[in-house]
Structures are given as C-alpha cells and as structure tokens.
Amino acid sequence: MEMNAPIAFEMNVYAIEEKTGNQAIAKMSLPRGQYPTPDTIRDLVKTATESFPDGYVLMDKKQFFNAIITEEYGKQNTTFATPGSPDFDENYVQGSDE
Fold first, then answer.
1. Is the pTM of this model over 0.85?
2. Which of 10, 16, 72, 96 is the most buried (most CB within 10 A)?
3. DSSP output for 26-62
4. What are the contacts of 81-86 at 24+ separation with CB within 8 A?
5. Which is nearest to 30 in space by CA: 47, 48, 44, 46?
6. Which residues, in sequence order, are bridge partners of residue 10?
7. How far apart are CA 5 and CA 39, in angstroms?
C-alpha cells in the first residue's frame, strides 16, 4: 500500500428524511495514510447514501448549510438561502487544473 503522509480523515455525509425533516450523519473513514482523491470521496458518498435508512436522502445545499449553521451556532429562528441551484456541483474545484 502506498502512503502519502501520516494522516487519517473522517468524513461526514449529511442526510435528511424529507417527510419529517429528521437529519442523520453517516461517518465515513477515508483510506489512512493516503491523500483523498475526488473519486474516493465520491465513492464514499455513494456508499453512505446506499446505507441510509428508508426515506433518507442526501441534503441539498440549503439543507446542508442550515445544518452546519445549527451545529456551529445553535438552533436558528430562520433558515438561510444559498445561491444558485439547490443541487451540489459535481465539478472538482479546489486544486483543479481545469
């Protein structure tokens, strides 16, 4: 096994049950000692999605942003909008040469 550095990453994948609004987080471990690639992360998101209980789906951008705000600052009396489409962009942005 190739190793890039003495690193270990854990990734949270956020889900929501659309009828009730209940939220869930799937904790995924990335390969130890290796820099994560976009493909590795996409594969783990897919694996997490397949393990969600019935009725749970990946959060959209607005749901995710509001979940993060709640984690950081506590329950809010309002929800926040996000610009653009509610769907996440699949393009790899950070560090991209494209």
1. no
2. 16
3. EEEEPPTTS---HHHHHHHHHHHHHHSPTTEEE--HH
4. 85/61, 86/60, 86/61, 86/62
5. 44
6. 29
7. 19
Instruction: State the amino acid at position 14 in one-letter form.
Output: Y
Q: Tell me the β-bridge partners of 12.
A: 27
Measured CA to CA, the distance from residue 71 to residue 93 in angstroms comes to: 25
Burial of 34 (0-12, 13-18, 19+ CB in 10 A): middle
Q: In what order do the strands lie in the sheet with 56-58?
A: 23-29, 10-17, 56-58
Q: What is the pLDDT of residues 33-83, one digit of tens each?
A: 999 998 999 999 999 999 999 999 999 999 999 999 999 999 888 888 887
